[in-house]
Amino acid sequence: MSWRAGLWAFARDERVIMVGIGLATFSVVNTMMTVLTMIRDDNEIPPAEPKTQYITQDTEDSLELDTLTKLVEHPNFSIRDIATKILCDRVVNDQGAITYLLYGITVKSYDERLHCLRALSLITNQTFGFDGLSKLNTPKAYSALVRSLEQSLEDAELPVVTNMHWDEYFLRDTAERFCLKFLQELTGKYGANLLVKAKFVEKWLVKQKWGDTPEMRKSNFSAYKNVRNNRIVDIVTRVEQCRRGLRALERSGLVDRDNSRRRMRELPDLLMEVGDVIGEAPPTDIQLRRAREHSAEERRLRRQHREAMVLNDGTRPLAREDIIERDHGSPA
């Protein structure tokens, strides 16, 4: 048999024919899939990315009051929050609205006072990049807050301030605590000068039940400052950090004259009559104190005094007897 006959016989074999048909089919299908994929990729339309839209000041100003009212009542929390902030921004920049609210906290009607106090609290805390509290740092605002405290004296019976075993602050009326919250934040940031000028000591602080005799009033007032840790104590601390405040406390009979005069002498000379808050000590004093610590002996003693060991197995609370300090007389 010649090689031609053998080749012809191999080509006529059914198995070879089936393999050839399979390979041809696979090639055609693969080619069609590749071509279709290329056509699909060339004609694909990518989805348009949403453009980020920011609420500009012009957009906020164009919103009508009715629209903002509907947005404030929207079920979505984020929309309500944004609408509330926009409203607060408008109010805090409207001097007429601030004046109306300040007048509202001084009226005799308890409900109106509380409503205006809540509104002031909202607009001072819900502003975009703006310190809403600065709008209340005016003599008119301090006078209004003190007047509101005066009105609160008639809303309920005065709490007991002479019991040193419990804090009466959280038993005070809500409107009174709102005013004290504002005054604490204002004096903590801007000092108590304007507050003292508004006669906070004479109109509200001195009217608390400190005692029947001058000695009892001074004693209870001093104990209250030392024991309590509330907003009233924070405000009184700021009042005591200006000369005008110390004079007001002295005239009201809440502090001793000698104690008041000594505190005045301790104030920096630069404060004089302006009633500013006590600042940091002059840089020269700091430098002098540090110069005394530069010696090696001073550093050794300070390091030795800080050395201690605590022995406690965790079965009982940590007590003073668990701390063993190094004998200060031992050599380094």
Helix content: 55-70%
How are strands sequenced across the largest beta sheet?
Answer: 1-2
**Topology pattern, helix = H, strand = E:** HHHHHHHHHHHHHHHHHEE
Which segments are poorly predicted (pLDDT under 50) over 5 or more consecutive residues?
269-294
Quick tags:
332 residues; mainly alpha; 2 strands; 59% helix
Question: How do the helices and strands line up, and which of them pair or pack?
Answer:
Layout: H1 3-11, H2 14-42, H3 57-62, H4 65-72, H5 77-92, H6 95-104, H7 110-125, H8 139-152, H9 174-190, H10 193-197, H11 200-203, H12 214-227, H13 231-239, H14 243-251, H15 257-266, H16 283-292, H17 296-306, E1 308-310, E2 323-325
Antiparallel strand pairs: 1-2
Question: What would you note in describing this structure?
Answer:
This protein has a two-stranded antiparallel sheet. It is 59% helix and 2% strand. Helix 7 (110-125) runs parallel beside helix 9, helix 9 (174-190) runs parallel beside helix 13 and helix 14 (243-251) packs antiparallel against helix 15 (257-266). The N and C termini lie far apart (114 Å). The model is unreliable at 269-294 (pLDDT under 50). With 332 residues, it is an all-alpha fold.
Q: What is the structure about, briefly put?
A:
About 8% of the residues have low confidence.
